[in-house]
Amino acid sequence: MTAVAAGAGRTGAAVAVPGQIAIRPMTAADVAEVAALEAVTFSMPWSENSFAEALKREDALFLVARGEALLGYAGVSLALDEGEITNVAVAEGARRRGVARRLLETLTVRLLERGIRQIFLEVRVSNTPAIRLYESLGFVIAGTRRRFYERPVEDAYVMACEPAVSYGEKGSLSLQ
Ligand SMILES: CC(C)(COP(=O)(O)OP(=O)(O)OC[C@H]1O[C@@H](n2cnc3c(N)ncnc32)[C@H](O)[C@@H]1OP(=O)(O)O)[C@@H](O)C(=O)NCCC(=O)NCCS
Questions:
Q1: Which of 41, 46, 132, 149 has the fewest CB atoms found within 10 Å of its own CB?
Q2: Is 135 annotated as catalytic?
Q3: How many domains does the chain have?
């Protein structure tokens, strides 16, 4: 995952979080807003073109959370039965309201439906909010990558999760 910008996200402070949050696949129409949130969140942001190209890939899956405006997004890259979460961000004014949790739970169910059984990601060792989020979803620290990040240089934790599932009466998947 890309690096978190120092003091990032301050321009997103006024996002209203409605009672109803829609989680749905990212489309080309979302890309400009997603890239704008990415730019205020990370020190080495993906460009608008990077997101547009990612949406064309069959081995990638990107979701957005929307109220009246974009609240957040998450993306994963797939390889065999593994998924690597490459992007997670929530607008600063929408944080601590369960948006990232909803995005990642929905992403996980989609991954399970596609046969993915292991999910991993990298996170800055200082990024306590993200580490707590991933731990709350069942991820554990599996290792450390020295000096993985730039701007500023920092180690990454590799976190991994093998999500457990249950099947509803109609065969629908949900997380346990
Ligand atoms: C990390 C981030 C995505 C969390 O998004 P969020 O929508 O605020 O997270 P949620 O509200 O879904 O939080 C779910 C759980 O994560 C943990 N958590 C989230 N933010 C936290 C914080 N600031 N401090 C401690 N724990 C936190 C808590 O366990 C929380 O559950 P709780 O609110 O019931 O205690 C958001 O802070 C963000 O966009 N940060 C900048 C970008 C970033 O770091 N992305 C990850 C890169 S690896």
A1: 132
A2: no
A3: 1
Task: State if residue 132 touches ligand 1 by the CB under 6 angstroms criterion.
Answer: yes
- Whether residue 123 lies inside any domain: the answer is yes
Domain of residue 84: give its range: 15-175
Q: How far is the CA of 99 from the centre of ligand 1 (A)?
A: 8
**What was the pLDDT predicted at 176?**
65
Q: Which of 122, 132, 145 for a ligand 1 pocket mutation test, highest count of atoms within 8 Å of Cβ?
A: 132
CATH number of the CATH domain containing 122? 3.40.630.30
User: Does 73 fall in a domain?
Assistant: yes
Whose alpha carbon is nearest atom 22 of ligand 1? 129
pLDDT in tens, 15-45: 666 678 999 999 999 999 999 999 999 999 9
Q: Is residue 146 within 8 Å of residue 155, measured between CB atoms? A: yes
Whether 6 maps to a domain, the answer reads no
Domain assignment present for residue 7? The answer is no
Residue 2 — pLDDT band, cuts 50, 70, 90? low
| pLDDT value of residue 18 | 61
- Residue 81 and residue 59 in contact, taking contact as beta carbons nearer than 8 Å: no
